Amino acid sequence: MITLSSDFGTPYPAAMKGVLCQHSDARLVDVAHDFPRQDVRATAFWLREVLPYFPPAVHLVVVDPGVGTDRAAIAIRAGNHAFVGPDNGVLLPVARELGDSDDPEIFEIEYEDADSSTFHGRDVFAPAAGRIHEIGVDSLEDLPDIAPTEEFEDLRFPEPKITESDATGEILVVDDFGNAITNVPGGFLDDVTEIVVNGDTAPVEPSYAHVEPNRRLVTVGSHGNVELAVNRGRGDDAFGVTFGDDLRLEK
Fold first, then answer.
1. What average pLDDT does the chain have?
2. In the chain, is it the N or the C terminus that has fewer CB atoms within a 10 Å radius of its CB?
């Protein structure tokens, strides 16, 4: 199996699929092609949340603001999975999650004279993903154009500061529903019925419909983190936050 993730929308993923079909007979699965445009951190967050549910696969990821520059192309081996994409940090959080290690095996993909300087998803990453699938994740270093490297762009999510009474954190992402997902672990809300969010009090509920429509709430999302939400509305608007904003929670 080869999965595909990008911020391309359509029709560009079809070209990557065409190239993959030239190199492999793998089953191709689209994860999403509407990740926030050129937003490496948001994409890294969502990949960490969804790719662990897949069986062993090669994961092709292209969110690549640096396409056409001297940024490297890399492959990462993490357990029975491999990741292929740009060296901008987007692959690291999910690789650490699936590899159960803080130091995943990282390889640089050597390439020259790509057909296009603006579409490495088609010309560099897709051929590499197909070749890795065919040779097998355990043997990817046997490919002639792949070599281990210790130089790479890292990406780590910020850690919250938590005491018994308060937490200082950050809005990591806002999903399409407007739910503002924080980096504060959901356990902070244990045995709490209401919480002060940046100075304003909101109820703590197990899910959205536990409050009336258009009312604010704080809950623990499926990702396990504290989430600011509105039943049938947008939590980011109601709480006045967006991704990257600082956050203070007080019991």
1. 97
2. N
Beta strand segments in 26-179, E? 28-32, 58-62, 73-78, 81-86, 105-109, 146-148, 161-162, 166-174
Q: Which CATH architecture has domain 161-250?
A: Beta Barrel (2.40)
d(CA 12, CA 110): 23
Q: How many residues does the structure list for the chain?
A: 251
The amino acid that residue 171 corresponds to is: I
Tokens of 22: 């030239």
How is the chain split into domains, by residue range?
Answer: 2-148, 161-250
Write down the residue that tokens 């529903």 correspond to. Answer: 177
Residue in 162, 129, 163, 164 with CA at minimum distance from that of residue 143: 129
pLDDT digit string, tens, across residues 195-226: 999 999 999 999 999 999 999 999 999 999 99
Give CA–CA dist 141/106, Å, rounded: 10
The whole-angstrom separation of Cα 175 and Cα 221 is 11
Residue 145 DSSP one-character state: T
Report yes or no: 197 and 249 within 8 Å, Cβ to Cβ. yes
Q: What is the rounded distance in angstroms from the CA atom of residue 198 to the CA atom of residue 125?
A: 43
Give dist(CA 79, CA 81) in Å, integer.
5
How far apart are alpha carbons 230 and 237 in whole angstroms? 9
CATH number listed for the domain at residues 2-148: 3.40.50.10790
* Residue listed under structure tokens 């999403």: 32
Question: Rounded to two decimals, what is the model's pTM?
Answer: 0.95
